[in-house]
Amino acid sequence: MQLYFIRHGQSANNASWQFRDTGGYDRSSDPPLTDLGIMQAQALANFIASTMPLSDDPSIGEYRHSIKITHLYSSLMIRAIQTGTILSETLGIPLFGLPEAHEIGGIYLETLEDGVATITREHGVNPAYLQEHYPSLRLHQPIEERGWWQGGLEPISSPLERANKLLGLLKDRHLGANDHVAIVTHGGFFNTIVRAIFDIRIDEIDNRNLPTWFSFCNCAVSRIDFVNERIIWVYHNRTTFMDDDLVTC
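The structure assignment produced for this chain is given below.
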């Protein structure tokens, strides 16, 4: 199994983060892609479409120049669905939604009133929204009518649990097969699932307490292969298919 991790394209939150020190950061609980994010996703999709190898014979060229995808998943956050849909439509590969691949924290907003924090209870996209806007998206499992997210802020211990659950699902479906699996996910959760794959300090549940962090640019690609009993990190944070003015991290 070849496992490709793809970070979603630039979101509205990503774009406004640069203004956080001047009070200009306007956070959305479930932001869409920016115009630049859409361009990033299309650049990635075009690159994959132009380089997918015609055979399954491994070669140095495959490692350096091509990306082959046979199965495509995404988180159910809007920015990931949008990115995955662009890939799906360009490559002609079905897109399956995986709630487990969402960003750390879930869908919420935090406000302060008189020094007291209040967390909103939002539920993300629901079946009706998906049917209207993304009818070709297939769900790995049914989601509630109110939306896929439970509401509120995710407990701090949940991301590692989710990562292991997602890895188990992918291994059950694809391990031992010549499957090339891509998941459109998020920077924070990518760091969590990498920790689960490589058994990195799983005694510490909070990524922020670790001295390491794996940078992951918008629409970058990282590849990890599962070969027999070995796990091989082939490359990380690949963005060479985008012009410099498209790259955001």
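Interim note for the steering committee: The chain has a mean pLDDT of 93. Residues 8 and 80 are 5 Å apart (CA to CA).
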